Amino acid sequence: MKKLLTTLCALALSATALVAGDFPDISIAELNKAIAEKKVVVIDVNGTDSYKSGHVPTAVDFAAVKGDLAAALPKDKDALVVAYCGSPACHAYTAAANAAAKLGYTNVKHLSAGISGWLEAKQPTEK
């Protein structure tokens, strides 16, 4: 019984951390691989103007989909969802990451490099 309670407490703390905005980072290389394998939904939270000027390939514009984010995400709640914003100092990504976590997605990550790091790494963008 003690093991069960310990496990349940650990799970509850993990879920709370996710909802609170504590999301693991994903590297540019890992994200590129997931995009190539079509195993990720990428969410850009930099705003529609920035999105239109260039975003990570396959990314969706959070400003355009946040009213019905569930429709932009896969049915599989274990699917990889990655949110990003402008740079490592930016925390705007948490709006999309928290929204996905609240919808029940369990594999939500953060591209902390943001679009600035993506561009510095000379990665392609889509317009």
User: What is the CATH first-level class name?
Assistant: Alpha Beta
**Based on the structure, what is the oligomeric state of the protein chains?**
single chain
Task: Provide the number of structural domains.
Answer: 1
Strand content bin: 5-15%
The CATH architecture term is 3-Layer(aba) Sandwich
Element-level helix/strand string: HHEHEHHEHEH
Shape assignment: globular
The average pLDDT is: 87
Helix count equals: 7
CATH T-level topology: Oxidized Rhodanese, domain 1
The count of strands amounts to 4
Give a verbal description of the structure.
The protein is α/β, with parallel strands linked by helices. The protein is built from seven helices and four strands. The radius of gyration is 15 Å and the shape is globular. The chain starts with a helix and ends in a 7-residue tail after the last helix. Residues 1-20 have low confidence and may be disordered.
Task: Give the gist of this structure.
This protein has 127 residues and is α/β, with parallel strands linked by helices. 46% of the residues lie in helices and 13% in strands. The protein has one domain: Oxidized Rhodanese, domain 1.
Topology:
Elements: H1 2-20, H2 28-36, E1 40-44, H3 48-53, E2 60-61, H4 62-65, H5 69-72, E3 80-84, H6 93-102, E4 107-110, H7 114-120
Key words describing this protein structure:
127 residues; alpha/beta; Oxidized Rhodanese, domain 1; 4-stranded parallel β-sheet; 7 helices; 4 strands; globular; disordered N terminus
